[in-house]
Amino acid sequence: MFGGHDIIKVTGRMIWDSQANPAIEAEVILENGAHGKAMVSLGSQGDAQWESEYINDRLSEAVLFEEALDQERIDRILLQALEDEIRGKKSVQAVSMAAARAAGAGLGLPLYRYLGGTSVPVMPVPVMTMISGSDGEMETDFPELMIVPHGAESYSRGLRMGAEIYHCLKRLLAISGYSTSVGEEGGFVPDMKDAEEGLGYLMDAFQLSGHKPGVDVSVMVSINKEQKDMISHYLRLTDRFPICGIFNGLWKEDSEGQCQMIKMLKDRFLMASHDYSHANGAVISLEEAGTVSNALNMVEEAIKAGCKVIISGDRGETEEDFLADMAVAVGADYVKFGAPCRGEWTAKYNEMLRIEEFYNKRKR
Question: How many Å apart are CA 41 and CA 25, to the nearest integer?
């Protein structure tokens, strides 16, 4: 199988994501018989029929007989074929991912080793959603409260801590009469008045599950940015709770506030943003990057800028676990895949368990 890495067939098909919205799957076959598949959600406005035909006609023709091992060239050709067709961006992403997976298979390598080499990685720390505050009809001051088991001795132990805290939180919310239904990222969606109430429940869940706040596990938050005096608000929260990070803390247009915030708070916690020019944490997703090579380049740029790297999933996910392999391959500091709940998120967390198991066996 190790010879002949030219692409001989590309197929697109319509599938469905975790929100019953249309999604697409791209499949790439190489001359040596290696296969690679990848799934991408299109969201509620997507046209999977159009996207799959776009893959079968336009993108298939563009990369046919190209060398799959040259990811940069494959992605460049795909983007050139895109031109101005906005609808085709997700198709390009899917084919890019499928080509990378096929290339690894053609070399007899799992994806994380194909993308990252043979060195033993440091496994990322999972950032797990616990409470979603702005889901559906709810309007609160926080979209998301997440936990970070930074005190765990291994990735698998950290994931287990997250599951233990998740179940304890569910019991506490139920006892208090709150709904324990879950949102898109698997977090609970109780109708709470503000972030402080949600953080209080998290502290109780930490204690009930036997994990010390600020020692074994801390919190990352995402706060609605319509509030006044956001920096003071963050400081008040961090004085009361073991907050180790903030996601997208200020408006992108508020460059003055971003500069002030990074100067004041960079030594206290991680400030993570997709735009990391005024942050010390870079949130990187495949949807934003568009192609595999773009995502890898973004990681490299973030590391050069001195930022921590957070590989993040997107809303409306599928059971695709490509991000898990990529996070391990690039040596990401954190992964943000939602709650330890719902198949689209646990598929990614579980794939990382398999990768950790592989490297643990090599150490023996």
Answer: 9
DSSP β-ladder status, 22-30 and 35-41: antiparallel
Share of the chain above pLDDT 90, in %: 71
Q: Residue 323, by phi and psi: left (phi above 0), alpha (psi -120 to 50) or beta?
A: alpha
| Tokens, residue 200 | 């209080």
Query: Each residue of 195-225: pLDDT tens digit?
Result: 899 999 999 999 999 999 999 999 999 876 5
**Predicted local confidence at residue 269, as pLDDT:** 83
User: Exposed (0-12), middle (13-18) or buried (19+): which is 257, by Cβ within 10 Å?
Assistant: middle
218-222 and 144-148 as β-strands: parallel, antiparallel, unpaired? Answer: antiparallel
Residue 82 one-letter amino acid? L
Q: Which domains does the chain have, with CATH numbers?
A: 7-108 (3.30.390.10), 116-363 (3.20.20.120)
Which SS3 state, helix, strand or coil, does residue 187 take?
coil
Which range of 58-67, 131-140, 270-279 scores highest in mean pLDDT? It is 58-67
The stretches of the chain forming alpha helices (DSSP H) are 48-54, 60-63, 71-82, 89-106, 111-116, 155-175, 195-208, 230-240, 255-265, 286-289, 292-304, 322-330, 343-363
Q: pLDDT per residue over 178-200, tens digit each?
A: 999 998 899 999 988 888 999 99
> CA nearest 261: which of 239, 232, 227, 218?
232
Contact 24, 39 (CB under 8 A): yes
Q: Which amino acid is at 208?
A: L
Give the DSSP H/E element, type plus range, for residue 301.
helix 292-304
Query: Do residues 280 and 264 lie in contact, with contact meaning Cβ atoms separated by under 8 Å?
Result: no
**Band (137; pLDDT cuts 50, 70, 90):** very low
